[in-house]
Design goal:
Blueprint (H helix, E strand, L loop, with lengths): L2 E5 L4 H6 L4 E4 L2 H18 L6 E6 L2 E6 L11
Parallel strand pairs: 1-4
Antiparallel strand pairs: 1-2, 3-4
């Protein structure tokens, strides 16, 4: 079974970094580890005007913005 790490909305910071919106893994544990690493990187390295959280949805992992709006001029 495939497991996905999904960045809910690609803000301009994510686009500048060239991050893929969806990454696929064969093992759930590998997907979780990648999602946690990606989220930590995004929270620590992006513009700092928003924060990201990780939510599990149907054995997949979604990285979304806390509070919705984005301050990095992505229009979200």
């Amino acid at each position: 079974m495939e497991h996905h790490v999904v960045i809910e909305k690609l803000c301009s910071c994510a686009k500048k970094e060239g991050l893929a919106q969806i990454t696929t893994f064969d093992a759930k544990e590998a997907a979780l580890e990648a999602a946690e690493t990606q989220m930590a990187y995004m929270n620590g390295s992006f513009c700092g005007k928003h924060e990201f959280q990780l939510v599990e949805v149907n054995d997949n992992f979604v990285i979304g913005m806390v509070g919705g709006g984005c301050g990095c001029k992505s229009g979200h």
